[in-house]
Amino acid sequence: MDLAEKVKAIVSRNIRGKAAAAVSGGRDSMCLLDCLLRFSLIPAEDLTVIHVNHMIRGEEAYADEKLVRDFCRAHGVDCRVVRENVPALAAEHGRSLETEARVVRMRAFGEYGGIVMTAHNKSDRTESVLMHIFRGCGINGLTGPTERDGNIVRPLIGCMRPEINEYIRIYRVPYSDDATNAESDYARNYIRNKVLPLVRSRYPGVDDAVSRLGDAARLAARASEAFAQPDGSAVISPDRLTGGAALSLMAAAGLSFDYTSEHVAAILALSSARTGAGVDLPHGFRAERESDCVRVFAKESFPDEEHPFALGVTRFAAGRYAEAAETAERADVSGSIIDLGKVPRGTVIRTRRNGDVFVPYGGKRKSLSDWLIDRKVPRYLRARLLYVACGGEVLAVIGYATGAALATDEKTETAVRLTAGRITDDEQT
Hints:
By secondary structure, the protein is α+β, with helices and mostly antiparallel strands. It has helices at about 5-15, 25-40, 60-75, 85-95, 95-110, 120-135, 160-170, 185-200, 205-220, 245-255, 260-270, 370-375, 380; strands at about 20, 45-55, 80-85, 115, 150, 150-155, 235, 280, 285-290, 295-300, 305-310, 310-315, 320-325, 335-340, 350, 355-360, 365, 385-390, 395, 400, 415-420. The strands form four sheets. Strands 11, 15, 16, 17, 18, 19 and 20 form a seven-stranded mixed beta sheet that branches.
């Protein structure tokens, strides 16, 4: 099966109607874009190209941007360009260029709102799995990039780089070579340029082998997906807790090695323990009994941090962020819509502090700690939440409740939805 047939098979399985393609201007992404158009896999009018200019390589970055724009213009494809100063953002947030670039790209993909195709190929999958192994990953890290993850589709995932290079040669597809790819300072480039050539010289089938490993790991991981939570923790009902379930519970939370039979026994004991009881596990993980479940999670301590309240994205340490965006809605189930006109001067978005008090909409004033307990917010989660506050008064618990002071009403002119999330280094592919 040639490259075009491989791409067609994945596109036909995963895409109906409109979609976007992430195009950097390099060989892989230009190959993907050309293939989609040349073989009419997606009509030009249904395709959007997303180009992210990371502003890392000076004039070369703008040359890449022009290449992509010109190609899209010539083929009648909508091109959306996002420019972000990744070096400045990385320095501001204390993250690597690789991580910050990924944060920027994922945000751009999320803003598109639909399926986004990326040009990850089989060679990329090998590199990613090795990177995860060297860092010390769990079973999910062995999967690497696959055909589809949520709204991300990878039509080239079954293709090797030599196939892509041959396609580029035959069809004379324009592309730009990133000179930094030849440097081995970055972890991925070191593996690509130094490690894998040696491995392939001895084991030429390594890429197929790693892909098979990744597929097997994905199947194994699915066995524990029922336990996994969006925040990275894993839970199970106490009456379902067995030895095998305890192992799956730990794997779903990201702990897949260095535990012992004593750790498994301690987790099993939590099925009949009081609420709040817990046990520390290897590598900074912990298991705790909650009112209706047993939870395994990675212990984390976050710095006391605050930022002035403002519309848009507010970034916090460890990849966390809060976003305040205008909305036509006036209320929601989570209670995270506020009246912008009621936000007092000096309001901030911050982490939790001792002595915080909260007056929920329709409720009585009480300590934030008591409110969190009454609301049955898991103890491990309380320090991870982000709060809108003025002084010691919490005005909103993002994702959980709006305080009485900021509640919307019939006089509200501008309503704002508050959301919070997190992007971590482990999400790199």
